[in-house]
């Protein structure tokens, strides 16, 4: 058994190009284990670097796309303003361009969204949401059938 292990170790020495009589078994396998550990860490580092590069690339592309869209919106807005300024000079196609702007939604894009109201506080409810307007009947609600 011992001779078989020595024979296998010598064949490992010839495969990995080291002298099995100079390098002991523990040192060889210790070096092999440290190489494996460092190799796995290098693979993980390369993977992280690749992910970071992709993330930076996606962020850059998204920023460029947002800038292009912003410029396009500004150009459309400028065209609408220029069209309104030229109203006295060129009357043909004004209604068509206005209808096109309304249908495409270009006239409404830059408006901010309104915050929705609470569902239980509709303006038609019999009990007002302002306590001073209830005139002493905060719990008494009139039902309309």
From TrEMBL:
<dbReference type="GO" id="GO:0005884">
    <property type="term" value="C:actin filament"/>
</dbReference>
<dbReference type="InterPro" id="IPR042201">
    <property type="entry name" value="FH2_Formin_sf"/>
</dbReference>
<feature type="region of interest" description="Disordered">
    <location>
        <begin position="61"/>
        <end position="145"/>
    </location>
</feature>
<feature type="compositionally biased region" description="Basic and acidic residues">
    <location>
        <begin position="61"/>
        <end position="88"/>
    </location>
</feature>
<dbReference type="Pfam" id="PF06345">
    <property type="entry name" value="Drf_DAD"/>
</dbReference>
<protein>
    <recommendedName>
        <fullName>DAD domain-containing protein</fullName>
    </recommendedName>
</protein>
<dbReference type="InterPro" id="IPR015425">
    <property type="entry name" value="FH2_Formin"/>
</dbReference>
<dbReference type="InterPro" id="IPR051412">
    <property type="entry name" value="Formin_Homology_Diaphanous_sf"/>
</dbReference>
<dbReference type="InterPro" id="IPR014767">
    <property type="entry name" value="DAD_dom"/>
</dbReference>
<dbReference type="InterPro" id="IPR010465">
    <property type="entry name" value="Drf_DAD"/>
</dbReference>
<feature type="domain" description="FH2">
    <location>
        <begin position="1"/>
        <end position="65"/>
    </location>
</feature>
<feature type="domain" description="DAD">
    <location>
        <begin position="88"/>
        <end position="120"/>
    </location>
</feature>
<dbReference type="GO" id="GO:0030041">
    <property type="term" value="P:actin filament polymerization"/>
</dbReference>
């Amino acid at each position: 058994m011992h001779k078989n292990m020595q024979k296998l170790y010598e064949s490992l020495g010839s495969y990995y190009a080291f002298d099995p009589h100079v390098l002991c078994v523990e040192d060889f396998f210790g070096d092999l284990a440290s190489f494996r550990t460092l190799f796995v860490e290098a693979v993980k580092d390369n993977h992280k670097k690749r992910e970071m590069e992709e993330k930076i690339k996606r962020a850059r592309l998204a920023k460029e796309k947002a800038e292009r869209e912003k410029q396009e919106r500004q150009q459309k807005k400028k065209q609408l303003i220029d069209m309104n300024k030229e109203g006295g000079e060129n009357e043909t196609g004004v209604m068509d361009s206005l209808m096109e702007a309304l249908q495409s939604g270009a006239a409404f894009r830059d408006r901010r969204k309104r915050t929705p109201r609470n569902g239980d506080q509709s303006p038609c409810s019999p009990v007002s949401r302002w306590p001073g307007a209830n005139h002493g009947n905060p719990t008494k609600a009139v039902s309309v059938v």
